[in-house]
Write a structure and sequence with these properties.
Order of helices and strands: HHEEH
Number of domains: 1
Radius of gyration: 12 Å
Distance between the termini: 34 Å
Strand content: 5-15%
Number of strands: 2
Oligomer: single chain
Shape: globular
Strand order of the largest sheet: 1-2
Helix content: 40-55%
Number of helices: 3
Largest sheet: 2 strands, antiparallel
């Protein structure tokens, strides 16, 4: 997925996705000069974020 596609998928502003990428907070790979995201990896990351924010 591209940044634009990812932003739509996770319902987030593309600028916010850029910030997450630049801070290495979201799994991504840079091909040439474009960031790419694997849907399965993003799904795992989202699930980890949900558990990370759950208080016990």
């Amino acid at each position: 997925m591209t940044i634009k596609e990812l932003a739509g998928y996770i319902k987030m502003n593309a600028r916010t996705v850029y910030k997450l990428v630049n801070n290495a907070e979201i799994p991504a790979v840079k091909l040439s000069n474009q960031w790419r995201f694997k849907k399965e990896t993003i799904d795992e990351w989202l699930e980890a974020q949900m558990y990370k924010n759950v208080r016990r």
